[in-house]
Amino acid sequence: MRPETTHFDALHGLRGIAAVLVMLGHFRELTAQHLDLAPSGFLAVDLFFLLSGFVIAHAYDEKFRKGMSFREFAEARIVRLYPLYFAGIGIAMASVGVTIAMHGLSSYSRLDLLASLAFSLLFLPTPPSLSVGPDLLFPLNGPAWSLFYELVANAVFAALALRLARRSLAAIFGVGLLALALLAWQGFSLGGGAHWDGTIAAPARIAFSFFLGVYLRRYATGSAGMAISTCRSCLRFAPD
Asked: Is the distance from CB of 189 to CB of 41 less than 8 angstroms?
């Protein structure tokens, strides 16, 4: 961490590696399952969730101690996330416009298109019966499912704020871990979340990863720092 900015350079690097892994994982879809460059690339999303919990706790714990309200937190997160998300919807609608120009208005159900746009603008999953892509939670911006679940976790974090102590955090991510283990036992894909038929795994993924990140920031960083300091002291006084 750089003290003058409180930026975690190592975490930025991890995010970059995770983003590349997600990109490589999607090559399988683009090549009709022939080129699988990152078979477990979906786990990078869980790393994103964990890093998010860590960073959110680092950025907002002290602010909540000083009296930050749920509304102030929500406004800060929306201002942070919505502009780029809105730009993504704009690109999707431009693509829709190109399709309509080439194939006519019959390319889409007008009701489904309007409903998909309305739900997307509200940052909510579109019900399959009103969607232009019934299998996707966010038909106009598929990857937005992860941001949606992250915002849900953010809301739980902000609503409970400092009442989320060591045991309650451990209980939350412990239940999430148990749910993931049971889903794997039953044969469900642990990479689910973007599609309605696999979204059962998403709540378990965010509960485990995000709140584990919060736990690590609050209760593990101090221990790690003490261990590093102890090691440095041992090295300083060790005989040649």
From this structure: no
**Can you tell me the distance from the alpha carbon of 31 to that of 80, in angstroms, rounded to the nearest whole number?**
34
pTM to 2 decimal places: 0.84
Closest CA to 204 of 182, 222, 225, 226: 182
What pLDDT, on the 0 to 100 scale, is given for residue 54? 94
Q: Report d(CA 112, CA 134) in Å as an integer.
A: 10
Q: What average pLDDT values come out for the chain (240 residues) when binned by 10 residues?
A: 61 84 77 72 89 93 93 93 92 92 86 95 94 94 92 94 90 96 92 90 96 95 47 40
Which tokens belong to 45?
């999303």
The tally of CA atoms less than 13 A away on the side-chain side of residue 158 is 21
Q: Say how far apart CA 177 and CA 180 lie, in whole Å.
A: 5
**75 class by beta-carbon count within 10 Å (0-12 exposed, 13-18 middle, 19+ buried):** exposed
152 touches 206 (CB < 8 A): yes
Helices (H), the chain: 9-25, 27-30, 43-65, 70-103, 110-121, 144-160, 166-185, 201-215, 221-237
